[in-house]
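ARCHIVE CARD
CATEGORY: sequence design from structure
SOURCE FIELD: tokenized fold
FIELD CONTENT:
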């Protein structure tokens, strides 16, 4: 991989299927259209999240992962990876950190997009799921300092996974946004990607209207808002 290619790789690190789509589908679709290679890493197995009491656990896992693959196809993402952690029971521990570091070293992204883990209450309208907080914390700790230092998980070196420096982090669902992306030309593509998650939104006839209003700013533009961190060294 050349340095030029390496600088056009983005990795979305999400707790559950559909989280990354809600947070960043517009921007990642924009990146893909501009020639970036976009990957998704989903940190749980998707075993929760249905009101259908006849839905079996293994069937739900299979459906949600298939939905995320289709959503990624609709966004233009290259690939999606799933970890085997139980949905709703994610803990930030050494095992999760190793899994995230492994994927950063394997995929070597310039930009990581993930949950902002710093607040429990988001904009006084949303409770930040504990899986989101665990994922965001693991992602930030993986970016700095863990993935950079060869002494962290040295067994990776034997597998050919070298240390890697991420240069930019974008956090969604944040109380401190400092970076707005106008996704107006891509809002329909974002909704199309989200609509792949039929187990989550298939019974909402007003889903498209709901989604449009969610990302519509006061000035009428459609925005994805992030807390942007540029790593200077």
């Amino acid at each position: 991989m050349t340095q030029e290619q390496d600088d056009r790789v983005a990795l979305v690190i999400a707790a559950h299927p559909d989280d990354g789509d809600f947070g960043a589908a517009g921007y990642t679709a924009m990146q893909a259209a501009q020639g970036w290679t976009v990957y998704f890493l989903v940190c749980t197995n998707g075993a929760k999240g249905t009101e259908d009491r006849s839905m079996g656990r293994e069937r739900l896992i299979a459906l949600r992962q298939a939905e995320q693959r289709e959503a990624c196809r609709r966004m233009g993402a290259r690939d999606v990876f799933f970890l085997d952690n139980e949905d709703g029971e994610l803990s930030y521990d050494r095992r999760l950190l190793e899994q995230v570091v492994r994927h950063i070293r394997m995929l070597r992204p310039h930009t990581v997009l993930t949950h902002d883990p710093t607040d429990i209450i988001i904009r006084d309208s949303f409770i930040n799921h504990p899986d989101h907080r665990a994922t965001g914390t693991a992602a930030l700790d993986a970016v700095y300092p863990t993935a950079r230092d060869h002494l962290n998980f040295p067994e990776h070196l034997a597998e050919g996974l070298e240390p890697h420096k991420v240069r930019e982090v974008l956090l969604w669902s944040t109380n401190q946004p400092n970076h707005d992306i106008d996704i107006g030309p891509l809002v329909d593509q974002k909704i199309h990607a989200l609509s792949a998650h039929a187990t989550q939104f298939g019974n909402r006839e007003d889903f498209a209207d709901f989604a449009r209003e969610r990302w519509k700013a006061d000035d009428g533009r459609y925005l994805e808002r992030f807390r942007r961190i540029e790593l200077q060294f």
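CARD ANNOTATION: Confidence is low (pLDDT under 50) at residues 1-5. The chain has one domain: 3-230.
SHELF: design records, drawer C
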